[in-house]
Amino acid sequence: MLGVTSLNLLLGLLLITLGLVLTAADHFTCTWQDQGTLSPSKYGYTLYCDAPVTRINDTHAKYICTSSIFFGLGHTSIRVADWGFLGPNVLEFANPCGRKGYADCEWRYWGLCNGTADAKADMSNVLCRYMGHHDDCSWPVNPAHAPDRVQIWNQV
Fold it and tell me: Where is the signal peptide (predicted)?
């Protein structure tokens, strides 16, 4: 029969394990491909923002979307992705609608592209992945260099 000390130890280990599982469950790898490898515009997505890279140093970069507010009287800037912060060479896309999200959340699905992905783009060098509005995710392949830009697309 287990003693009180052994039972407390077992319960403590169980809580630690559960905490680690819940912590790890908050982050995903961007794997959903939606309907294929074409531009998100071909699948009913609308371009939300085009964010050029801002290189911080050789190992870190960020991607900022800028939009006009109040009929062009000002603008707002929000970080939608970064490279090298989650881990070496990891491209991470932020959560658009969760806590500290960057978007008006009437859209359920989001397209994430590591380059220009409009209808006329050469998609042979651009990868797009998709996520739900409360997700964030990291790129499935760690690029050796930060992409020159990322694009965020949305769909109701």
Answer: 1-25
